[in-house]
Amino acid sequence: MTKILSRDAVERFERDGFTGPIEVLSPAEVAHYRSRLENFERRYPEHVKKLKSKSHLLCPWVVDIAEHPRILDVFEDLLGPDILCWSMAWRIKKPDGKTFAGWHQDTAYGGVEPILAFGALAFSECGPREGCLRVIPRSHKGRVLAHADTEDPASILARGQYITEEFDSSGALDLALRPGEMAVINNAIIHCSGPNSGTDRRIMLLVEMMPTYARQNRFRDSAMLVRGVDTYGHFDADPRPDAEFSPAAQAAWKTAIDRRAKLIFAGSQLAPSEAYGGTRPAT
Hints:
Blueprint lengths: L6 H10 L5 E2 L3 H17 L16 H7 L2 H11 L3 E11 L7 E4 L7 E2 L3 E6 L10 E3 L11 E2 L13 E2 L9 E3 L5 E6 L4 E3 L8 E10 L3 E2 L5 E6 L8 E2 L9 H18 L19
């Protein structure tokens, strides 16, 4: 018996690779967490890009989002009762009509099997005008296509990656979200997002979760248990932050992100960006 999603919604996720919008945060919660984000931006402007990966290791309030009961109930419906958080990744686009993400598959770089799912959680309007996610239904069932890197400064992606093979994008769908809504996507799906031509920032948090039986097929990785029990031990445990951006939290983030950088930038001529502990500017 599911907790939040209907059986049809679970079947759609398995068949098409994504869910429709699900309301998981109240307007008051959206306002609270957006305020916490913007307070971090004011206090640590030179470190904002670090929130693009594993931000829950830097901020206890991001752990609170990861462990929000309604969010975890959605993931439990899709992944089972024992859940690891791989990352909490903020994706923010200024309303400048420039920043985008090319067509790509996260499985080209992630290495987690058999499934990693990410929730696209909106903290502002995230429609086509603001550059919402676009997905190609059922593309998660195909193979991983060839990708290439680019140093395009407008790309929001770590390597500016994009698919180089031809594929059918005629069935692409926009995943428009209102603040407080989340759609869950299989990270093998082909997806992209356009520029933000709206009037507000597009503020989205990628809530990256996996079942405890998942494996990292490239090397030993880390994750945080957020529900249930982990009887497999495939991942080292990420420590919870003692305070926002404390020395201990920064050290834990750096240890985890150095691992992640080896994964994300394996085989690339690009150096790790600020979001992955490097110095190269991140969009």
